[in-house]
Amino acid sequence: MGLPNVKNRHILEVARALLLTTHMPTMFWGDAILTATHLINRTPSCVLSYAPPLGTFLAFFPTSRLQSTLPLRLF
């Protein structure tokens, strides 16, 4: 089992948890996947010394055009 499979499984587990806890129908699966990746990229990681992955990326690439200032929203 490679690293991409672990990442995909983590995204799917978070999306499934979002759908189950909010009692949403499966037709919102795509929105749940997008929200899960948004939340994962903004959650601090112990591998990165408890820094958020997006912040670490922007530290390496400060001229990136990523939208890092988007506020969190309710799912």
Class per helix and strand makeup: mainly alpha
Q: List unreliable stretches of 5+ residues.
A: none
How much strand? under 5%
How big is the Rg? 14 Å
User: What distance lies between the first and last C-alpha atoms, to the nearest angstrom?
Assistant: 31 Å
Overall, the morphology is globular
Number of extended strands = 0
Level of helix content? 55-70%
Give the overall average pLDDT.
Answer: 84
- Largest sheet report: none
Number of helices: 3
What is the helix/strand order? HHH
Name some characteristics of this structure:
single chain; 75 residues; mainly alpha; globular
In brief, what are we looking at here?
The protein is an all-alpha fold. 56% of the residues lie in helices and 0% in strands.
Topology:
Layout: H1 3-22, H2 29-42, H3 53-60
What features would you describe in this structure?
With 75 residues, the chain is mainly alpha-helical. The protein is built from three helices and no strands. The protein has helices at 3-22, 29-42, 53-60. The chain starts with a helix and ends in a 15-residue tail after the last helix. The mean pLDDT is 84.
